[in-house]
Amino acid sequence: MIGPMDSSTEPPDGAVEEAGELSQARRRAAFRGAARTLWRPGTDATLAERLAELTGTAGDSHDLSDGVDVYGDGVVAALEGRVAELLGTEAAAFFPTGTMAQQVALRCWAARTGNPVVALHPLAHPEVHERDALSVLSGLRTVHPTTERRQPTADEIRDLDEPFGTLMLELPLREAGFLLPTWDELNDLVDAARARDAVVHLDGARLWECAPHFGRSLREVAALADSVYVSFYKSLNGIGGAALAGPASLVDEARAWRHRYGGQVFQQFPTALSALAGLDRELPRLPEYVAHARTVADALRTGLTRARVPWFRVHPEVPHTHQFQVWLPYDADTLTRAAVRQAEETGTALFRGWHPGAAPGLSVTEVTVAGPGTEWTPADVVRAVAGFVARVPVPASVPVPGPDGEAGSGPR
């Protein structure tokens, strides 16, 4: 299992740095200063730049003569209405974090079904990134339909050997490579849960970019589930925040728990405004990003093959969303140093941070293709791969284990 995608790394060769914070500052400066990148997250920006962006775009998404929000009215309520409309649900509630929204949803369903057991993948966000909050705060228990690095199957849901009240599906499953089931498989999963008298909750932190893979609208995807959580910063480049959408009675109950959890924030207009701007500016472009991610993934394979890397994997081969993984047989620090050096020396940031993979000497990075990435041609990607590999010490070509534990003997 891959652990959380952290940001730790050593400084590039020849750099004199004391410890993590300085190293992080150098890495951030390198990627922020790169003229060419596949995406430019909000964390690259300065405070002044983020404020300027917000004031420059917010007026296109909401009337700025409106009064400020107070405990969830005004622009926050407008955002909630927008989300409910987009997803086709009765209501939606804004939350300061997705972790809070999802915990509240799952505890509400546990109370309604009378069953505190949640079936979910062991690589799902609550299991990897939330410090056991489901059990510590809500007394819930989890079961895993599969430990394979893929979405569960309907048969695995039907064959679980104990009852569960909620099936939580993370769409896409980030840690496994931003993987999605097919539309038919998703319907079968929902049917299998219903046959077990369970409700279905979608962890849709990145749901916004899933529609192209399914060939369906967001409303059609959301309609399969009893509740849906969506994020405003992962794909929409907002400041933060999340929403829980579903039946009005569930959302009303969730608002009560939001207050108990400390999520009834006095004013949240900057976050809400940035979310509305993201829905207006980024959401319509996500299908374009998904399509170009497939072009980039194919070009990465070409570039890595030409560079004679001893083994690699672009996973999945055809990205399901605008994000995917690249695996290489080198340690994470070496690869991150190469990425930083490439950004500093050439102004091109192909990859960012690398992280230890599923076996010693194997590392993984996440590739995101957004607005800046759509300007890259396949030839641009191949050249960038050559520049990156040239900065990586290349060992002799030997078989190395893949992320699934199988051996690989050369470029794939």
Could you list some keywords that capture this structure?
globular, Aspartate Aminotransferase, domain 1, 7-stranded mixed beta sheet, pyridoxal phosphate, disordered C terminus, PyrdxlP-dep_Trfase_small, Aspartate Aminotransferase, domain 2, 2 domains, 14% strand, 412 residues
Topology:
Elements: H1 20-33, E1 36-37, H2 47-57, H3 75-87, E2 91-95, H4 98-113, E3 117-119, H5 125-128, H6 133-138, E4 141-143, H7 154-158, E5 166-170, H8 183-195, E6 199-204, H9 211-214, H10 218-223, E7 227-231, E8 242-246, H11 248-260, H12 269-281, H13 286-306, E9 313-315, E10 323-328, H14 332-346, E11 348-349, E12 355-356, E13 363-368, H15 378-389, E14 400-401, E15 407-408
Parallel strand pairs: 1-11, 3-4, 3-5, 5-6, 6-7
Antiparallel strand pairs: 2-8, 7-8, 9-10, 10-13, 12-13, 14-15
Protein name: Threonine aldolase
Cofactor: pyridoxal 5'-phosphate
Pfam families: Beta_elim_lyase
